[in-house]
Amino acid sequence: MKNVVMIGGMAAGCKAAARLKRLEPDYKVTIIEKKSFVSFGTCGMPFFASGDIDSFSELMSTPYGLVRDQKFFKDSKDIDIIINSEVIRIDTDKKIVTYKNVESGDVSKIKYDELVLGTGAKPLDARFKCPVSDNISTFHNPLDAKRFRQKAQTGQIGKAVVIGGGYIGCELAEALVSLWGIETTLIELEDHLLTKCMDKDISKLLETVYSKEDVDIRLSSKVEKIELDKEGMPIVYSEDGWNSGAVDHVFLCMGIKPNVSLAESIGVKIGELGGIIVNDSLQTSIPTIWAAGDCIESNNIITGKPSLFPLGSLANRQGRVIADNIAGKDSKFKGAIGTISMKVFGFITASAGLTEMEAKRLNYKAEVVTASFYDRPDYHPDSKNLFAKLVYDKSIMRLLGLQLAGYGEVTRYIDSFSVFASNGMTCYDLIDFEHAYTPTHSGPMNPLNSLGAMAISQEEGIQCISYLDAKDFIGQIIDLREEVEIQANPYAENAVFYSIMDYRMHFNEFDKDKPLLVVCQKGPRSYEAAISFIQNGFKDVRYLGGGVQMAQQLLEEGELD
Amino acid sequence: MKNVVMIGGMAAGCKAAARLKRLEPDYKVTIIEKKSFVSFGTCGMPFFASGDIDSFSELMSTPYGLVRDQKFFKDSKDIDIIINSEVIRIDTDKKIVTYKNVESGDVSKIKYDELVLGTGAKPLDARFKCPVSDNISTFHNPLDAKRFRQKAQTGQIGKAVVIGGGYIGCELAEALVSLWGIETTLIELEDHLLTKCMDKDISKLLETVYSKEDVDIRLSSKVEKIELDKEGMPIVYSEDGWNSGAVDHVFLCMGIKPNVSLAESIGVKIGELGGIIVNDSLQTSIPTIWAAGDCIESNNIITGKPSLFPLGSLANRQGRVIADNIAGKDSKFKGAIGTISMKVFGFITASAGLTEMEAKRLNYKAEVVTASFYDRPDYHPDSKNLFAKLVYDKSIMRLLGLQLAGYGEVTRYIDSFSVFASNGMTCYDLIDFEHAYTPTHSGPMNPLNSLGAMAISQEEGIQCISYLDAKDFIGQIIDLREEVEIQANPYAENAVFYSIMDYRMHFNEFDKDKPLLVVCQKGPRSYEAAISFIQNGFKDVRYLGGGVQMAQQLLEEGELD
């Protein structure tokens, strides 16, 4: 028999507790949680905020209607839960946790043999002047969501500013606009949204979505301060001189950091990224203390280095690993690559692994291809555009990362890519990817097959150029589209126009020694023609990866091509 | 320079031709096709038949509106296409192909250095008496689809019989009913639909879908004969004495076989399954002759044995491999596992690898787990049921196959599974599967994580039983559902009912030495409780995998659980 205490009753702690009781029913397992509830679907908060989920208690209920409260955990799983209790001291010699009830102030102690830290993350502090006000809040814990919704429901928010264009900021901005009709400004310090997961070329597609929905996106904008006007309404000022005017609410979504103050206080080693250091059994530097979830640094399978992956899915898997190890089963957490997706206004973005920017920062020989696909055969009525960017290490053709965006089959391909990249596979392996083919769901070649082939071709000399780089292109341009396509979406006025049907007759009208950019609507025609130009002696040929479709952010199905 | 001739202008031949011209622009590449068109989206036929795709020419057009005809291939790709021409002789010594124009009867010859056979498949012959009639047809080539649609559009089909419940038969039956309102009977020889890809337990979910739509499904029904009545209307008779009465049309969808008569005539080796034998470069037994697509046997990656995989997706990839090899690049086709999906009446089925039945026939130590999941968190409004069956080799925990069904995220998980299974991975690897988690698209644990964990637990003694086997269960049953769930969908009258909240108080009311079946709505509660019973000394405990949800074919989201 062992006493096992979990500090923190969210995904990691609850999963570890439940699994451990299944493996070792005689163990006494206790969860200590600061809030008044445990096992809350935190990731569902934006959907509660948006109204997609109607009741707060839905986020803490089982599918069969029982609320995951103390009684539920005790009766169904024989797990003890202590809520409203903050851990104030851990004596690692005597193995005693001291905690205080945040309501009554009562202090209690509990002995442990093994301790699990699931202390999560906390919002990054503002690096600008930010007054304390009911009209300024983070959107981090369930009470934030509850307060927001009360305010929104009673019509108290007409105008809002969201500071921070990461996942939470982006999802929240959508909720504000789409359900509550709130006039919303989204401010991001960097030059594009979702900088941690997306490069600029794919992220700009997302910006287009927000713009269509009249969200005011302010990029490369550094907030200088927030002040309150006479009525206590906040005004956001940025360093470039812009200000928001008085708004009803400001949301601080500048990101999170591991919550490690408790771990630090007992001498558990903290890593360079600010998270608890664990080995692959998820053991901290103190052998009887384990840690999981948003508070740890875990292995990035691609780089082999510690990374922060604050994802509920990983917290769950990590909880399982800890339970196994405490029960004496050898279990490892191999790490993660960071696979994530988001849906706003129906538009889905997803990414896995490294961005081009990050890969280059880490000195990989990173190369990229960009592409636009149909996610189904073009003749199928459900066919939608899918935009993609593949990042690979050209020295060994290893897969480094993928970014996808579109209204259709996005998560499907990011998931499959995740399996390839998590297992050290290459662009060649993508060509062998066997997807479930039927025209209702995909074309005979899938996007990963094509991206793999494009990457391999690129290393053989068929160079892809992304539309952002193509803006700086100086040289000859040939646009291979049909007249009706060009009229609908003109690309370059200085281009020479020949159809894919007759460009072969006109090789001699171009200068073989000058750079040549080949353009079409989505990419395949220009890819094919680029090869012909190269074979006919042209020295510097590129094709526009993703075509005019990506260059002009033509997101919707039903566009011309 | 080489002369390369492709026989057959569908996926394999066209892909090989296009790729080869990109690699070797100086080669002369010629496609000989019996029909009047090439590069036709054959897989789109059922959608043309159903009216989802309006125009026949859409299936042979590029996305930018050009028809993929002789002129298109010549002008854009420099490929010669000879249509309406049947190959009547191949002289492998002199390397000459002789072909005859099917309209004019003119005979011509063409020399080759390398020959590619893409002769496809042909319908299996009926093994019953089947008269020749305009009212009886296969649904194999585009002209079949065109004729059907003309007949349907002019109201000439009120009643129809489809013989054969494979993919084509199932898709066609949906098209008949959903768009044309035709009273349809679907006859299958075996005891369930899609026998090659699905076991009975998952396939029955699909039957429920057809039944809801009033398709008359007749299983285990052997057709004895088809006769014509005085008006020339066909009547289908089965050996059990049933007959269809006079109907307007009978569709023969009993499956296909490789079309190898030409290959046989020149001594190319044919395999036991009736397909052309090729090596992993896709070379036949005659070195200058290559073959790809539905006419070949290719390596089954799971069994290591030759299999028939008549899928357009594989034909495409094989065409690429042949082009590479002819151009002197070393390229291999590793094989396939058979990953496929289908959508009828909005319900999606998908499978990859071996069924349980096939795995046992091949003497694998095959074990299975069955499960019902939500494809998103249960609190999310888009959440839908997902039914699953995993087949694995218990001796090494290797993944053998997966079957999925539901209205939601089906293809996503079959694709990821395909990557795992195609690369020889195990149930342990499934636990490490990192999917893109966000509540709009998935729960924190994904179905593959859970299936892997269930399989591993099963080998540790936590036995899952499928609802079909549970029908024969003799022993004690405990139903752990809440009262409202039981009332909505009663399962077993002789069950003892305790909530997950209080069953732990009642262990001593059961006999530890008698078999015990633990039941809940979807599986997780009974899984957890089964462990408790085992830990409390019960000798023979099983939980109902997939729960009452699967047992009673509760397909829709919005069901109670």
CATH class type of the largest domain in chain A: Alpha Beta
Number of domains of chain A: 3
Overall morphology of chain A: globular
Distance between the termini of chain A: 66 Å
**CATH fold name of the largest domain in chain A, please?**
Enolase-like, domain 1
Q: Helix coverage percent of residues of chain A?
A: 25-40%
Total helical elements of chain A: 16
The count of β-strands of chain A is 31
Task: Profile the largest sheet of chain A.
Answer: 5 strands, parallel
Low-confidence stretches of chain A: 557-561
What's the Cα radius of gyration of chain A? 26 Å
Oligomeric status of the shown chains? homodimer
- Mean pLDDT across every amino acid position of chain A: 93
Biggest interface pair, counts: A-B, 97 and 97 residues
Strand content of chain A: 25-35%
| Widest sheet, order of strands of chain A | 3-2-1-7-19
Task: Provide structural commentary.
The structure is a homodimer of 561-residue chains. The first copy, chain A, is an alpha/beta fold. Chain A has three domains: 3-40 and 56-119 and 257-326, FAD/NAD(P)-binding domain (3-Layer(bba) Sandwich); 136-254, 3-Layer(bba) Sandwich (FAD/NAD(P)-binding domain), CATH 3.50.50; 355-551, Enolase-like, domain 1. Chain A contains 16 helices and 31 strands. In chain A, the strands form eight sheets. In chain A, strands 3-2-1-7-19 form a five-stranded parallel sheet. Chain A has a five-stranded parallel sheet with strand order 9-16-10-11-12. A five-stranded antiparallel sheet of chain A has the order 22-23-26-25-24, with helices on both faces. Chain A is globular. Chains A and B meet through helix 1, helix 3, helix 8, strand 22 and strand 23 of A and helix 1, helix 3, helix 8, strand 22 and strand 23 of B.
